[in-house]
Amino acid sequence: MTDAPTDILHATHRALCEHGYAELTMQDIADETDLSKASIHYHYDCKHDLLVAFLDHLYERFEERIDDPDGETPAERLCTLVDSLMARQSDAPAFQTALLEIKAQSPYDDAFRKRLQRFDDAFTDAVREVVSEGVADGTFREDVDPDVVASFLTTFVNGAQTRHVGVGHPLDESAEAVHGYIGDRLLSDSRANVAVGSSEGVDVGGASE
Amino acid sequence: MTDAPTDILHATHRALCEHGYAELTMQDIADETDLSKASIHYHYDCKHDLLVAFLDHLYERFEERIDDPDGETPAERLCTLVDSLMARQSDAPAFQTALLEIKAQSPYDDAFRKRLQRFDDAFTDAVREVVSEGVADGTFREDVDPDVVASFLTTFVNGAQTRHVGVGHPLDESAEAVHGYIGDRLLSDSRANVAVGSSEGVDVGGASE
């Protein structure tokens, strides 16, 4: 009827939301499906292999999400991009915690490290691209370096996620802070005090010179 | 001869550097001292209690480190402050990984959460104070909001640490990026292209208006 590996990956998502990563068992995942633990083992030898496959699955969704972000202008698209990793994180807190647990395992686990690097590269590339567009069309200041901003925002988004898990700092406050950074630091017409909205998009009318 | 609890806390630091947090055992800590595992259990019931005591010990050192940061001007002091959590991290990578593991445990562990909140508050407060000084003496632009910058930089520093552990992003690159932010976004005289150095301090000569 349905595709077992896909079912298992969706079940893994639900199980991570409920149990986090460290405590997760193959049985927890089986409990989220109609399959037995043995059938899951038929597809994935162990929890680690399943988690690696899950990260690949997550990456495919991530790539779609950050490809061609919504927005009329580069500033709007940049806000959409950073928000996609912060403001819209309505995933269960346990899921974000699980991702942080996986990051903390990364130095001991080459397969995790390689997957995390792909996420990091893809997000950095996506930011660099939209910032480059913005510099080219005059939305952003001409002295803005897309490489520097891309790395800066990737680091900031990592921090927003970590601080959310570690001390419960609200993701929407981090999103607002980064909108302020985009408005103050990047927009070529920052003196005009152009509103950089959050939920309803960014008003950068008149920002291109 | 020496103070057993202090010896144990120092041994915990060394053991975390070697083994990380998840795999750490009381025996690993005992192996770093002249004490038996039983003597360590005499002072601390379990690994968790010892880790909580260790975080308190770390916090005391942290408070000293961020109190009255070196520098002639608020901009220099702000760089010293952020560098203290990034550029100078010559601690073993495993130690930083251990701290990230502890952050990832925080949602399940009130004692950890409370300690992490103290670190977060102390760093935010320290940044807010030096930024306020800088706004007051004209080093920083008068439209700079110390609360916003304090939270922004705390988030960024969290991100630098996470990205360093997760994908090996160099801490000195993150430090350089944040110096750029301070120079471009905060300094009142940013058009003068004032050098914001790293190791040898910050040259903000002429920045106060």
Question: How would you describe this protein?
Answer:
The structure is a homodimer of 209-residue chains. Chain A is mostly helical. Chain A has 2 domains: 1-60, Homeodomain-like (Arc Repressor Mutant, subunit A, Orthogonal Bundle), CATH 1.10.10; 68-209, Tetracycline Repressor, domain 2. Chain A is 66% helix and 0% strand. Chain A is elongated. Chains A, B: Residues 2-62 form the HTH tetR-type domain. Chains A, B: This is TetR/AcrR family transcriptional regulator.
**pLDDT averaged residue by residue of chain A:** 87
What is the CATH homology-level superfamily of the largest domain in chain A? Tetracycline Repressor, domain 2
Distance between the termini of chain A: 57 Å
Largest interface, with Cβ-Cβ < 8 Å? A-B, 42 and 42 residues
Can you tell me the overall shape of chain A?
A: elongated
Give the C-alpha Rg of chain A: 19 Å
Assembly type of the chains comes to homodimer
Pfam families (chains A, B): TetR_C_6, TetR_N
Organism (chains A, B): Halobellus litoreus
Keywords (chains A, B): DNA-binding, Repressor, Transcription, Transcription regulation
GO molecular function (chains A, B): DNA binding
How would you sum up this structure in a few lines?
The structure is a homodimer of 209-residue chains. With 209 residues, chain A is mainly alpha-helical. Chain A has nine helices and no strands.
